[in-house]
Amino acid sequence: KLTSSFTIEAQPDQKHQNVEPKPKKEIDGATYFRRGKRKAYKCQFLQAVALFNFALVRQREELGENHIDCGTTLNEIGVCWMMLGERYPALTAFEEALYILQQGLGVGAQEVAETTNNIWMILHEERLEMEKFMEEGEDDEDEE
What we know:
mainly alpha
């Protein structure tokens, strides 16, 4: 019959030691951006816009206020707000994105064209809504 003997050393109780806990690893802007893209892909736009905002804060800390990545993130923020039906915050994000992207890439860049198109879409929707509102107003006057 085989037997083995061994001893288990007691683990020191960490509560009673003056040991600093490991610092939590900070999440960088690129990680927040990828998480935002995944949420947007799943049509979870409110969660996506929150993650893109975290990404923007980190990117500005890490890369500078007007880095091209910040412009790309602002465009994504605008898309999320647009998908949520919030045109004003979307337009604000797109305008800032356009400024940054034009400065960094030039006016002929594809990213600049995409952001410009996004701005046009918002303005077009606003115009259609205004025309509909005006037509309804005219119909009400005709009935009187």
